[in-house]
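#struct-help
A.M.: can someone run this one for me? Single chain, 246 residues.
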Amino acid sequence: MILLVALLSLAAACGGAEADMSATPADDGPAKPVALWGAEGGFVTATTNVLRPPRVVLYSDGLVIVDASKQLKLTDAEAGETVASMERYLTGQPPTVEPKPGAPMVTDVPTTVLGVRGKDGKMLEVRAAALDQVADFYPKELSEAKKLMDGLATRAAATGTDYVATRVRMVAEGAESAEGKPAPWPAGVPEPSGTVDPVWQKDVEGAAVSAITKAVPAGQGHDRPLFKTGSGALFVLSWRYLLPDE
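D.P.: on it. Structure tokens below:
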């Protein structure tokens, strides 16, 4: 009888442990981008080209980040609907979509990039040059996808909060012929080293983040903050917060 009770107790304990393990969710790691809208190329400065983030990124946890400066959180239902719609719009499109014959020639404008993570876990990206300018010559699904993501950007601007991060991408652009009185190079901010061609970039964290965001406040518009390094070289400093997956 004692042996039987012991065996039953052991079986119950094993069954309870197995139930606890099966109830523990798997760790899928950090959130991943599941839908995006961005831009590439166009007639922009080297600094803009290096710093330009996706216009809108939706992450698997429902976080939406717009221009690496605003954020909002979608419900699971909203995020799922957004991904499903983007998948419907982009599935079957080639990686680079060409406009229909007869489209006017448009130069020096960015190429639109639209993306969605499929059920296979891979990111499907579709590119369309001058989509805004010649939308009628592209499949309507591309404009619908962009409109969907643009709606998230509008919503973030109206009801979202500021996006901040613990890591920053900084860019220094040579400005030897720039006019104006330069400020001393900010203490705690790394100075450019090596070749600057045409810009110097570095991802920083820790105290350097506080130093550069204090020296070059966000939202300065088209102001060009000019700084002089210890060696006397002049640079324009710019930065943006890095995204969670960068």
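A.M.: thanks! DSSP finds five helices and 13 strands in the chain.
D.P.: also worth noting: The CA atoms of residues 96 and 127 lie 5 Å apart.
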